[in-house]
Every structure is written in structure tokens, then in C-alpha cells.
């Protein structure tokens, strides 16, 4: 079917097309209401010094320091650190579930790393974030491995979680539902027209 003929068919069955699109809008809005937006909180951790930095004696901003920070980013998001945070997370969850909620990244070319966490509520996101940051500090401080051990401290605790507001969240879901409904309505109208 060419576009002009398809459009003519859809116009003849505009009630079906419109009805399915409106149904998609309503279902999307309901889905958005019962799937609240996730909130994100971030803590900043500064790495003062590591044994590997001492041994390299590389100037600030060099590739040696960069590789050290990259290593610490991996360590901060590793299984032992996440597992250490589990007892302090509410509500309780599995290691895999907690890993999916946590993101660790370096902040530019500085010796600061950010630990971000998502949660259904601001308190949950902030609690997860701070639990992981504290677990990371404890893990690196207690390790005897030169690759892991570091002098680390929190420079900014997770205090304010951010995310989309519920009305905006519902509106996004409603629009996506309407688009999906419009596509399904278009296909249904074409099928009715062909039959």
C-alpha cells in the first residue's frame, strides 16, 4: 500500500485509530503513575594518595595518575565494595540489584570520583550512595595490596536526590503510550481496510 492509500484507509477507520491511540495514552499514564520515577544521589570521594602514586612519583595530571584513578573507579564499583554496603542498605536487596543501582566515574582529570545511586525515594538513593562510599573507604583503607590501598575521604556526602517529578514522569509515559497506541491503531486500521 502506498502512503496516500494508507492514509485514506486510516481516515475511513479514524474511530479505531483514535480509540487505540487514546487507550495507549491512558495506559501509558497509568503505567507512569504506578512506576514512580527513580531518583539519583551522588557522593564525591577524593583520593589523597595511593602507594602506587608514591612509587610512580609522577607529576599531577600524568597518565600514571590517570591510571591510578581509573583503577580506583573500578575498585569502588567492585563486588567486595558493593557487598560491604549491603548490610547498610534499606530495603535489603541482592548484590546484583545493588550493583545495578550504583554508577562510579572519575570527575574530569581530578583525583575525585563520583559514586551515584538510584532509588525509588530520595532517602533510599542517598542511603545507598553513602553506604557504598563508606564501604569503599573502609575497603581501600584496610587493604594491604598496593593496587587497592588508598587514602580516601568523602568530600561531599549524598544529601540531595534528584530526578523527574511525578507529573512530568506520568506525562512522558502517557505520550509514549499514545505513540505506541497510534502505531497499533494505524496497523489495525490498515488491516481492517484490507479486509
Number of helices: 8
| Largest sheet descriptor | 4 strands, antiparallel
Q: What's the overall average pLDDT, rounded? A: 84
Strand order across the largest sheet: 2-3-1-4
How does the helix and strand content classify structurally? Answer: alpha+beta
Radius of gyration: 25 Å
Percent of residues in helical segments? 55-70%
What general form does the structure show?
A: elongated
- Given as residue ranges, the uncertain stretches (5+ residues, pLDDT < 50) are 55-62
User: What is the strand tally?
Assistant: 4
Distance between the termini: 13 Å
Order of helices and strands: HHEHHHHEEHEH
Strand proportion, as a percent range, falls in: 15-25%
Description:
The chain has 195 residues and is of the alpha+beta class. It contains eight helices and four strands, in the order ααβααααββαβα. A four-stranded antiparallel sheet has the order 2-3-1-4. Helix 1 (3-12) packs across helix 8 (166-194) and helix 2 (14-34) packs antiparallel against helix 8.
Question: Topology of this protein?
Answer:
Blueprint: H1 3-12, H2 14-34, E1 39-49, H3 51-56, H4 63-76, H5 79-85, H6 95-101, E2 102-106, E3 112-119, H7 122-142, E4 151-156, H8 166-194
Antiparallel strand pairs: 1-3, 1-4, 2-3
What features would you highlight for this structure?
195 residues, four-stranded antiparallel β-sheet, 8 helices, 4 strands, elongated
Amino acid at each position: 500500500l502506498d502512503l496516500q492509500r494508507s492514509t485514506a484507509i486510516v481516515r475511513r477507520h479514524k474511530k479505531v485509530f483514535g480509540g487505540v491511540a487514546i487507550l495507549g495514552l491512558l495506559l501509558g499514564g497509568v503505567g507512569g503513575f504506578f512506576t514512580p520515577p527513580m531518583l539519583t544521589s551522588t557522593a564525591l570521594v577524593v583520593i589523597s594518595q595511593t602507594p602506587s602514586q608514591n612509587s610512580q612519583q609522577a607529576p599531577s595530571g600524568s597518565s600514571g595518575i590517570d591510571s591510578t584513578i581509573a583503577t580506583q573507579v573500578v575498585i569502588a564499583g567492585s563486588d567486595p565494595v558493593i557487598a560491604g554496603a549491603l548490610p547498610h542498605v534499606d530495603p535489603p536487596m541482592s548484590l546484583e540489584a545493588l550493583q545495578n543501582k550504583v554508577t562510579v566515574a572519575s570527575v574530569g582529570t581530578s583525583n575525585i570520583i563520583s559514586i551515584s545511586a538510584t532509588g525509588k525515594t530520595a532517602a533510599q538513593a542517598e542511603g545507598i550512595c553513602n553506604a557504598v562510599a563508606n564501604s569503599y573507604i573502609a575497603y581501600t583503607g584496610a587493604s594491604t595490596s598496593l593496587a587497592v590501598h588508598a587514602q580516601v575521604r568523602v568530600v561531599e556526602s549524598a544529601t540531595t536526590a534528584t530526578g523527574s517529578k511525578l507529573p512530568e514522569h506520568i506525562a512522558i509515559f502517557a505520550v509514549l503510550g499514545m505513540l505506541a497506541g497510534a502505531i497499533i491503531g494505524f496497523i489495525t486500521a490498515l488491516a481492517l481496510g484490507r479486509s
